[in-house]
Amino acid sequence: xxxxxxxxxxxxxxxLYELQLRAFESEAEMIGSRNVPALMESxxxxxxxxxxxxxxIRRDDAGGIIAAVRFRKVEDHIEIGRLMVNQEYxxxxxxxxxxxxxxxxxxENVFELYTCTKSYININLYEKLGYRTYKVEKxxxxxxxxxxxxxxx
Length: 153
What we know:
Blueprint: E1 5-7, H1 13-31, H2 37-40, H3 43-49, E2 54-59, E3 65-74, E4 77-85, H4 94-106, E5 110-116, H5 120-128, E6 132-138, E7 144-151
Parallel strand pairs: 4-5
Antiparallel strand pairs: 1-2, 2-3, 3-4, 5-7, 6-7
């Protein structure tokens, strides 16, 4: 695993939440809706949910968190969520390195995630990484979500 990637600690929650709000703002613009789950979550909700996930972070040279992804084991697969990269650091391979780190860290073979069907940039990234859509689901706020899976064998 890349030495610049580390596991987030409780003391990182506030900085992660601030990154989440900044990173998912562009998602809201792309899909034309502020009903993005990551933007609807309060700080307290985020803080209480932190213990349910392992979060990998990538820092810049000054020590600030510039990218992160969370994951957890669910039955027979790894659920991945909240892949986020600071807008200033996008298109530099950080998302790819974090997703690869999840695979390496877990040693598992099946990975699942979801993203808005209007998030073409995200879907293209995930497809490039080997994820395939296995179902599309209409959410309760008028958005549809593509559920994607990657199987390593």
